Amino acid sequence: MPADHDARTSAAARLLCCAALALACKGDAPRPEPQELEAPAPAPRLGSFEPLPGAPTMPDDVAAALAAAWDARPSDYYARTRHLREDGGPRFVNRLFLETSPYLRQHAHNPVNWLPWGEEAFALARALGRPIFLSVGYSTCHWCHVMEEESFEDEEIAAVLNERFIAVKVDREERPDVDGVYMQAVQLMTRRGGWPMTVVMTADKLPFFAATYIPPRDGVRGARRGLLTLLGQLADAHARDPARLVAQGEKIAAELVRQNTPAPPEGVPGPELLTRAVAELAAEFDDIHAGFGPAPKFPPVDDLALLLRYHRRTGDAKALEMATRTLEAMAAGGLHDQIGGGFHRYATDGAWLVPHFEKMLYDNALLVGVYLDAYQITGREEFAAVAGSTLDYLDREMCAGDGFYAATDADSLTPAGAREEGYYFTWTEAEIDAALEGLAPPDIAAVKAHYGVTPGGNFEGRSILHVARPLDALALELSRPREELAALVDDARQRLRRARDERPRPLRDDKLITAWNGLAISAFARGGFLLKREELLFRAVAVASRYDAGPLTRVVVDEAPRGAPVLADHVYLAQGMLDLFEATGQPRWLEAAVRRQAEADARYRDPATGVYYETAVDGEALLVRAIEDFDGATPSGSSIAAHNLLRLAVYQGDEAARERGVAVLRAFARALTARPTSLASLLAALERTLDSPREVAIVHPAPADAAALDALLQPVREVYSPSRALVIVAEPELDDRARAIPWLAGKRPRDGAPTAYVCERGRCEAPTADPATLRRQLAVVAPLPQPGPPDP
User: Fold this and answer.
1) Does pLDDT of 669 surpass 50?
2) Residues 535, 540: Cα–Cα separation, whole Å
3) DSSP 712
4) pLDDT greater than 80 at residue 20
5) How far apart are the C-alpha atoms of 543 and 537, rounded to whole Å?
6) 447-494 pLDDT per residue, tens
7) Separation of alpha carbons 471 and 489, rounded Å
8) Max Cα–Cα distance, the chain, nearest Å
9) Residue 132 near residue 122, CB atoms below 8 Å
10) In whole angstroms, how far apart are CA 108 and each of 98, 130, 243, 379?
11) For all residues of the chain together, what is the average pLDDT?
12) For the stretch 745-776, what's the b/e string if a residue is b when 16 or more beta carbons lie within 10 angstroms of its beta carbon?
């Protein structure tokens, strides 16, 4: 697919298709030839930059701001462009040089006269009578880079954009609100979605053309019409009959309004919907390679989490098999970075072998959670190991101390200076031999066999490392002890990582995205607690401390906050704070979770219907105020809000919070019933409402007997109980804690020892200091209710 794609087409997309206005890009596009990059060199002052082709002279204030920013650039500043002067400096500069977004700054030296999203661009379009050319992407998007190199670095194409359009660039990670609205328009007009996203619209923001990646010229990658031709046709159409395009844009806008108008609340779906969703997943399950559906395959985190919950309640063996086989396949494939840990964005093939090599913070944080779930429900240490190595990768390569960076690129530099997708992560046999120099030849051969390294490779002459021969099979094949091979592979992995660290690294997007850091807080809190690794908990606390008070922004770049928050920023943080409270017992995190969720309720929730909008009531007015009724690359914000409210209701005995959580299910009942697997995260919230959540208190004297307390916590770590509410508290703090958590009242340590209380809506099992007894109490599962009459 010629786009970095994870937008799911909604059912409404099939209702309105402007086929005459959309570009159909069919099939997987071949990878472009790598382009040579010159080494950084000193660049000229602003006055020596060439005029942007076809663009008017920069206004004096903009020129002055650009000059000041150019003079203040870092000494090692690198101009990402092929348009270089003889002295090595860039020929062109545009307004994006004044932006903080790493993605926008990647385009700062295109010959295109880019403007950031804002009133200046739309006012200019109105004044000049031109359409807006909107391009949306993100810094680690491979096909965004391709379109930049092919089209936005092309002076002929740039001249047409500059002469006949107002060109606007948007970072989808910084402005998910803009991206979300126009992605819905793209899906309506093309029945597909992805990035780079291309929309042409009127000066009043009404879209009349949409596409994803567009080749530069007719015939390139088999396209009937390339961008250069399309630009001329669209500009001519706008000049000839702008009223017709306005009418088309109004039709699209009206459909977007219809899609984003809250439906009347309906009855809460029953347990039969969970059964139906699991059956639909089973019908899509790939029995050969695991996962769901054909390539490309994205990590189906929400689906897997739902399957594990369903298995716990029903004992359904197929649900567990689908989840564990998919987790195994992803961990063994090239999707998983076998050397450095962590996961790439998605697999381009059905076997999870060939990834799209970018790495995203949100993918890795979410995958940690589902691997930990699988570890708890199966007890399999390999799942814990994957979660642990992913957390290690994030802490080692993506951590800013009190925050996590957003992503790393798919492309990196080869020794020849060319930018090539996947080069950093792939190997030749000679490179493996050099990195493992000093090991015996049979040992090197065993490592190659384990990782599937062959002379011809499996990816453009190089090898993507994957578990081609598991250690058990390799031990039988080579007649060597498994433990010996495990130690060999571990040593080889460390050697290979050291060798890889010497290569030029992929570009890293160093902005801190609030919502994604909320997901990381959850991952590190749960990982630190379940894996008994205090350093992970310390990291979760450090990151959470950045966000536990004060107003939120969407991103932070170089410590500069930027952009209005969206729903996900609030609710993902609230979820992370709740997970951190469970892991540490520190009340400040429960208070922070309550505060962040309350902000979401006050600014994003429609009290009449219970639905949550993606933007705040006082946010920028776009074509529509969007409602996300599906899980995209991350769970829908409304789903996480529902989970948070249901969890807080258990902690605080707050029936009003529970009602708000259930109201989300009522608000989305129609969407859930129509396409349940597109909202798996909300189905998990439905399962939560059908459970009998356990109230688990671990109370201990102060100071605690550390060994006894750890022994009593071990069953809590091991038993999969996703709906339980856990509180760890020292006796001197009990009375104060009970004011916020009423069911803690009267629960004291017995006989001076750490004591566990397991209760259900106030009815408690006998308090115990015995880990085996606690394990039995925690393991009791309420079966999923049988379908009954519909909820009134």
Assistant:
1) yes
2) 9
3) H
4) no
5) 10
6) 999 999 999 999 999 999 999 999 999 999 999 999 999 999 999 999
7) 9
8) 88
9) yes
10) 8, 22, 33, 51
11) 92
12) eebebeeebbbbbbbeeeebbebbbebebbbe
Question: Residue 111 and residue 54: Cα distance in Å, rounded?
Answer: 9
Count the neighbouring beta carbons within 10 Å of the beta carbon of residue 354: 22
Tokens of 507: 């570009």
26: part of which helix (H) or strand (E)?
none
Residue 39 clears pLDDT 70, i.e. is over it = no
119-170: per-residue pLDDT in tens? 999 999 999 999 999 999 999 998 999 999 999 999 999 999 999 999 999 9
Residue 33 pLDDT > 80: no
Smallest Cα–Cα separation from 509: which of 35, 217, 144?
A: 144
The encoded tokens of residue 707 equal 């060994």
Instruction: Read off φ and ψ for residue 200, nearest 5 degrees.
Output: -110, 130
Q: What is the mean pLDDT of residues 566-583?
A: 98
Q: What phi, psi does 412 have (nearest 5°)? A: -155, 170
Residue 264 to residues 365, 663, 664, 665, 666, Cα–Cα distance (Å): 34, 11, 11, 12, 8
Are the C-beta atoms of 43 and 66 separated by less than 8 Å?
no
Structure token digits, residue 304: 């897997």
| Three-class DSSP category at 569 | helix
- The answer on pLDDT for 59 being more than 60 is yes
643: left (phi over 0), alpha (psi -120 to 50) or beta: alpha
Helical residues (DSSP H) of 241-380, grouped into ranges: 242-259, 272-284, 301-314, 317-332, 361-378
- Average pLDDT, integer, range 163-184: 96
Spatial contact of 669 and 698, defined as CB atoms under 8 Å apart: no
Closest listed residue to residue 567, CA positions, set 625, 637, 510: 637
Nearest to 758 by CA among 670, 696, 687: 696
Average of pLDDT values for 489-514?
96
- Strand 207-211 versus strand 197-201 pairing type: antiparallel
Whole-angstrom Cα Rg for the chain: 27
What DSSP character marks residue 541? Answer: H
Residue reference for tokens 């200019």: 124
For residue 147, give every residue at least 6 positions away whose Cβ sits within 8 Å of its Cβ, in sequence order, or none.
135, 137, 196, 213, 214
Local structure of residue 253 (DSSP, 8 states): H
Enter the tokens of residue 487: 């130690």
